[in-house]
């Protein structure tokens, strides 16, 4: 039985805790949050407000689901204590933090961290990738991401908190990103729409379109190849008959859109605790996405294309 701790008890942390408690072979031994949610009283699990002590206690595994600006620090504490880690995206809110995690993991000589880019196990995305493999050379990749944030967010938050998922998707499917050209439609207090044109090392034309205040939550990928094109399917939804029409509700729930993917990711992580090394998206993937995000933020600020900084890939990520 593997004993794990969950750091952060917001919506994402509680989802992880509940998912893990339903899995065989793993025990949620502790949940840490400086302001524990009332729901935790019914979990039957040790709850602590000492987040750093819990992260550094030395569990079989630690799930980091706390605010973005704590990810790197808590991951480093867990690694130093010998724990395996599932760290929600982003790996860090800064490049310095992401690099520090990579340096610590390389010093350990093996992969110990899985980063929460759960689209790699999302059934809609994996089905697209499988189908794309039958269509010849990839020519064009288009990623769209619609969100329902009525409250405006500044560009750096939009990019690092939300768009980083799409940057990872683009890199996962089409290869390394070498340049980002960003265009923004502003709204009071932040941004309404972001368009990224990505230059890929593979030569594939790639765009990412993000809207932060739309009618519903949606994520889609469209890939055009030499012998055809394929799009991701939408999650299964009930179909209503009302007002003389068939209607399929979309909703604004990103948990609902990716619930199966999060559960699959957690099962993958628990299974990996029995292996010598972590699986799934790596710290290198997290740093690569962070570098592309930083280029996007700079491009937004200056209105010009920005090259994405490269880095030497350690043997442990190859």
Q: How does this model look, in words?
A:
With 318 residues, this protein is of the alpha/beta class. The protein has two domains: 2-119 and 262-283, Rossmann fold, CATH 3.40.50.720; 122-257, Dihydrodipicolinate Reductase, domain 2 (2-Layer Sandwich). The chain contains eight helices and 15 strands. The protein has helices spanning 11-21, 51-55, 71-80, 95-108, 123-132, 155-174, 254-272, 283-302; strands at residues 2-7, 26-32, 46-48, 61-64, 84-88, 113-116, 138-148, 177-187, 190-200, 205-211, 213-225, 228-231, 240-242, 245-247, 306-307. It has a seven-stranded mixed beta sheet. It has a six-stranded parallel beta sheet with strand order 3-2-1-4-5-6, with helices on both faces. The longest helix is centred in the middle third of the chain and has 20 residues, at 155-174.
What characteristics describe this protein?
318 residues; alpha/beta; Rossmann fold; 2 domains; six-stranded parallel beta sheet; 34% helix
Which helices and strands appear, and what pairs or packs with what?
Blueprint: E1 2-7, H1 11-21, E2 26-32, E3 46-48, H2 51-55, E4 61-64, H3 71-80, E5 84-88, H4 95-108, E6 113-116, H5 123-132, E7 138-148, H6 155-174, E8 177-187, E9 190-200, E10 205-211, E11 213-225, E12 228-231, E13 240-242, E14 245-247, H7 254-272, H8 283-302, E15 306-307
Parallel strand pairs: 1-2, 1-4, 2-3, 4-5, 5-6, 7-10
Antiparallel strand pairs: 7-11, 8-9, 8-15, 9-10, 11-12, 13-14
